Amino acid sequence: MTKRPARCACGQLQVVCDGEPSLVSVCHCRDCQRRTGSAFGIAAFYDAERVEISGTSKTFTRPSDTGYPVTFHFCPECGTSVYWLPARKPSQIAVAGGAFADPGFLAPTKSAYPERRLPWVADPE
After folding, report:
1. Distance CA 87, CA 52 (A)
2. Overall domain count for the chain
3. Which of 44, 61, 80, 108 is the most buried (most CB within 10 A)?
């Protein structure tokens, strides 16, 4: 099976995902816009047992728009948000799409909160 490495900007916090994600989604909620400093966030969801984590992380937990908390793990050295644990999907780990730095990475197939999408952003088909 394919191993997909993802890491923070400095390389201290890394995850290696086994195989393909169960879902790749783009999220347009305001909190993802703030977290990424971009127009949206991209999440690749993996079963937790298929993700190997190394390095040290700091965490930040916030409620999501669904009411379930989400715990974000970011590098304490460079600040990159690498993965998060969504309480509404307790068996899953979400990995930041950009942390893979792979031009061949899978495109999102789902869009969350499209009503909050910035008007110049096109959703996945």
Report:
1. 19
2. 1
3. 44
The two structure tokens encoding residue 115: 């009503």
Range of the domain at 16: 3-113
The dihedral over CA atoms of 81, 83, 87, 93, expressed in degrees to the nearest 10, equals: 170
Structure confidence by residue, pLDDT tens digits, 26-84: 999 888 889 888 989 999 999 999 999 999 999 999 998 888 999 999 999 999 999 99
Q: Residue with structure tokens 């937990």?
A: 61
Rounded Cα gap, residues 65 and 15, in angstroms: 26
Establish if 123 belongs to a structural domain: no
Tell me if 121 is assigned to some domain: no
- pLDDT tens-digit profile of 5-42? 999 999 999 999 999 999 999 999 888 889 888 989 99
HSE-up of residue 97 (Cα within 13 Å, Cβ side) = 20
